[in-house]
Amino acid sequence: MTVFLVIIILALLAVTGWQMSKIFDLSRGPGADSSPIANDKDNRQQAQITLAFMVFLYLGMAYSFWHWSKLYLPEAASEHGNEIDTLMFISIGIIMTVQVITQALLHWFVYKYQGRKGKKALFFADNDKLEFIWTIIPVITLAGLIIYGLFTWSDIMNISEEDDPIIIEVYAKQFSWEARYAGGDNTLGEANVRFIEGINTVGVNENDPYASDDKITSELHLPVGQKVLFKFRSQDVLHSAYFPHFRAQMNVVPGMVTQFAFTPDITTEEMRNSDYMVDKVSTINDIRKENSEALMAKGEAPLDSYEFDYFLLCNKICGEAHYNMQMKIVVETEEEYNAWLSEQETFAETMEK
Ligand SMILES: [Cu+2]
Fold it and tell me: Cytochrome oxidase subunit II copper A binding domain spans which residues (predicted)?
């Protein structure tokens, strides 16, 4: 509502400004140049504004890179992540180069060939050679990018049986995630929303023999260096499972199972100790310390100090608490993973209670 009001006020202000400029023109009297046709002075002014706009664009671009590049994600923590990053880097590199050159040409030509009295534009109908050049270069570049992207995509999405991945179900609902480990048989029991009842929160079929050893958890633990196949289900609306640090994302659609596999290759501990993360965490904690002092001065509790963890986020705006829909991910050694998993209760044990 507030946004709507602000838009209306801005629109009204624009109309007011426009009307005032008309009144201003009328009040200048008969002596002033009131012709609607642009003269040399107008043209020069417009050409200079165009050049100034180009400078503004380049400065804005340089500032954005300098100021926001620290917000980039850390290095990819999965095996395929580097492929995605390279694809992204090459695409952005090409786009940036073309953009910088064409902006300069566009603005410079507007300036150089500004309107002048007595100057006439050359009539130039077409040139087959030029048309050919500016068609074939984008065709080759785009085809190259698309084919490269397709190969990367199929490389990441094709899961071979030989990899023998660990199977984990990721279950989404407004507004939380749950994970279901397939247990000793590495086969998930049947599940459906119709089976949801009481503590059976993800709807596992109690009568399915594969289901009894499944383990339902509120944290995702993954062993480093092992391929994990995630099977996604949603209870209610469209969600999107987003693993930013692992460069993975998959829509979670009610009524169907979607999947994505990746191999985590940096443990939580290693990521915490990386230069990038040590630096980032200390910056966050400095800010928290300052804010805590302000809070304590008001007699409120101070903030906890921050420690890095991987997390799974929802990347579809799925409702009012969407922003809060996240699950902690721990990447650890195989021994730690096995120790953690053996402590988790099986589905059969949960249902006995
Ligand atoms: Cu969601």
Answer: 163-343
